[in-house]
Amino acid sequence: MKGKNIWAWVILLIGFVYFFLPLFATFEFSMRMIKDRYTFEAYRQAFADPRFYLNFGFSFAWSLLTILVSLLLVVPTAYWVHWRMRKARPWVEFVTLMPFVVPAVVLVFGMSRLYGGGLKLFGMPILVLTSTPILLVAGYVILSLPYMYRAVDTGLRAIDVRTLTEAALSLGAGWRVILLQVIFPNLRTAILSGVFLTFAIVMGEFTFASLLAWPAFGPYMEEIGAMRAYTPQALSLVSFLLTWGSIGLLQWVGRGTGQEQIAGAH
Amino acid sequence: MGPVKEAHTTQPNGGAPKARPRLNAILDWLALVPFFLFALMFLVLPSISIFFRSFEAVDGSFTFENIIAIFTVRDFVNAYKSSLSISLITAIGGAVFGFLLAYAVVLGGLPRALRTFMVTFSGVASNFAGVPLAFAFIATMGNAGLVTRWIEGITGVDIHAQGFSIYTITGLSIVYMYFQFPLMVLIMAPALDGLRREWREACENLGGTSWHYWRYVAFPILLPSLLGTTILLFGNAFGAYATAYAFSGSFINLVPILIGAQMQGDVLFNPGLGNALALGMIIIMGVSMLGYISMQRRAARWTR
Hints:
The complex is a heterodimer of chains A (266) and B (304).
Chain A lengths: L1 H29 L10 H8 L1 H34 L5 H13 L2 H12 L3 E3 L2 E4 L6 H25 L2 H10 L4 H12 L1 H16 L3 H5 L5 H11 L3 H23 L13
Antiparallel strand pairs in A: 1-2
Helix pairs in contact in A: 1-12, 2-12, 3-6, 3-9, 4-6, 6-9, 7-8, 9-12, 11-12
Chain B lengths: L3 H4 L14 H9 L2 H21 L11 H8 L1 H34 L4 H16 L3 H11 L4 H10 L13 H25 L3 H9 L4 H29 L3 H7 L6 H11 L5 H30 L4
């Protein structure tokens, strides 16, 4: 067993180096703004830029909107599939897997070509989509759909939806009460998992925001990266801490519930 | 409005689904309309429009030329070759190393805390991608990167002065590996946990060695999840745009980079070509997804 152990430690060490060397290098690099000295100057400059807060705020707003739309769309649908529409399950699951088949860059390309001139009905524009962030938020909802759906679905599997709903109905509860006071509290962990994951995905997203030309943290970082040295690395670490924070919260919230999460948008 | 009066006489047992009147069945489907309508508008229709526009010439007439161009124009062929090779390299590399790491933390006899840490960190790393990841690796192995300076300090050789560049397929592969192998760890750790002790004991009781166990029991059981996850990693790299764009701009000619450029300013001077490129991506991703789903089905047989 001893030999096996050493081997495992070696693999682990390589893993550690791969994980932490780039992070350490980023940190070291971000401190080198002033020659021959390690300072936090790059961070001071990064945080002194008002556009940092503006773009960060925009990303925050996009992620809140995405989470809201996603919850309104996914929770009732997933609940309904569990309670009454078992036969619709393959269709719903097919839709939630489709974002894996259509990469973000392809989806945004298709969307912008299709809705570039607004949504028209009989030649009359009924919805102007490119001057409103509808396409952006819709795209984010689609991007995070597999994760949000999977999280909520796992949560619903863990509770007995049928019994809970029937018990509530037989006690005379209305649908609002059932959803808000019976189902929702039981799904709190699952929903929070979906929310944190969606938040992590949207906060750092670049493809949609950049190609649809909306202000966001991702394109801002890229722009700073093209203009300056050192500050982009400071921003990278901020972004990393953000991801670490949301995934950390996610795993803390979902501990012991068997909620697994996999991969975001690249 | 005949059947409506039934709707309010909900029985304490919830009412048997088969006895429900037709109107309720329609209402049941109606409840799913928002979801499917949203998916139709923002997922299905954009994809279908890409399909149709791939066959559209500049003047709007029907043509096969865009599709033919994908297979004949050198830039497009090269873009597909680059995208496919970077996805293959990082999928296989990520799968092998991710599996070894998952094995080390689950079955390698390491302290439990290390395992929890590694799995948590894999969750973070697999989500840490795009612009910040590209910057992190520029700080690591770029012209003034930490590793570059270390190598220079130790050997006196400036690797970048020797005509070496990290802004190549190899360089980008190293970057992609950062989110590739953690995904493998995330999926394989539970799968390795699922290997029952009884299986190993049964093998040993029958006189099998550790090699026999892995060759004839554990590996065949894990193979579908291994292959399935490798396919997932392939798609993960194939569709990546932000990381490649922020890392190397348009230095590396990848399909997503071409599509992005086409979108920002019709660089191909023909909208149909952009659609044909995108269609090619959807087809490749679709085929790999089918492979993934069939592998998932096989893997599920053993997890009951």
